[in-house]
Amino acid sequence: MSEAENSNRRSTILDAAFRTFVAYGFKRTTMADIAAAAGISRPALYLEFKSKTDIYRAEFVHLLDRANQATRDALMGEGDFSSRLTRAALAGTIDALRNIVDTPHGAELFDVKQEIAEDLGRLWFDRMEDDIARALVDAEAKGEITLASSKMDPTTFARLLVSAIEGIKLRMTDCDSAEADIRRLVFLMTRPLIN
């Protein structure tokens, strides 16, 4: 099997696993359910993944990669810096959560994340902080913002912003109110930076 075919097969499995997890929950989902949803046999599934925990972690990385790419795309997109940063913050958080939160088993899937993929959540923090810090440096080089007015370096600004976003996520009751709070947060944090 070629590398491209293997990648497509893994992607098919992960997409099927996601649909199965949101439909049945993590605990009720079996490897047989995932195999059936992916259109492959259980033995073929076991050739790719040892357990549904491995699949969940791989799915989390898959979602994380997409969220990080959406964040980078938004930061490099059109508009003023505050607008780009707002779109990036939402792309990296709320947009990714909407497909999970509103499902019957969304709460369970988040609880499972704490048990088996907490380290991957830290990876999300690190990547988003790095992307935002780089965007701040680029925006200052282009004359869009002045970091000195915030009395923070890019790394500190990015760390505080991402930590505040995570706090909003932890306390959120629904995606729409969390989105509104993230928009307000980015506005408040970027206002002193804008030239």
From TrEMBL:
Transmembrane stretches, start-end: none
Keywords for this protein: DNA-binding, Transcription, Transcription regulation
Ranges where the HTH tetR-type domain occurs: 7-67
Cited InterPro entries: Homeodomain-like_sf (IPR009057), HTH_TetR (IPR001647), Tet_transcr_reg_TetR-rel_C_sf (IPR036271)
Alphabetical list of PROSITE patterns matching this protein: HTH_TETR_2
DNA-binding region as annotated in the record: 30-49
Name recorded for this polypeptide: Helix-turn-helix domain-containing protein
